Amino acid sequence: MSTVLIADDDTDISDILRRILTRAGLAVLTAADGLDALTTAAAALPDLILTDLDMPRMDGLQLCTAIRATPQTAAIPVAVFSGSLLPGDPRPATALACRAWLKPLTNSALIAGVHELLAAGRHRHTPAHPC
Fold first, then answer.
1. Which single residue of 37, 91, 105, 123 has CA 20 to 30 Å from 52?
2. Count of helices and strands (H, E) across the chain
3. Domain edges within the chain
4. Distance of CA 33 to the CA centre of its chain
5. Is the link from the previous residue into 104 a cis peptide, with omega within 30 of 0?
6. pLDDT tens-digit profile of 23-71?
7. Which CATH number fits domain 3-120: 3.40.50.300, 3.30.70.141, 3.30.428.10, 3.40.50.2300?
8. Are residues 58 and 35 in contact, defined by beta-carbon separation less than 8 angstroms?
9. Where are any strands of DSSP class E within the chain?
């Protein structure tokens, strides 16, 4: 069973995502902010990280950059999702995120995107090939 780590400071959103992904047959871990997510990712080594952009202590882009800078987590796919991103925003790609999704996202689009990233598996991320 694949494990997904959700980083979001909004507990309602985190709970909804957890339920959707659990029903899709995935194990789910949650973190209330980027710093907690970084600690959890290093300890649990999830197969995928889904992170909100706007969080206290460490935002989603800072989290993605920190994940890429840590050898044991550098290859984990990361998807950023936010209601404050605009289409074409270059910041997620600059932070080497695999995907950037705008909220709201339909359940089916979320599950399809998660399965796509899980199928790609862990891989190297560079500025030339972020994902």
1. 123
2. 5, 5
3. 3-120
4. 12
5. yes
6. 999 999 999 999 999 999 999 999 999 999 999 999 999 999 999 999 9
7. 3.40.50.2300
8. yes
9. 3-7, 27-31, 48-52, 78-82, 99-102
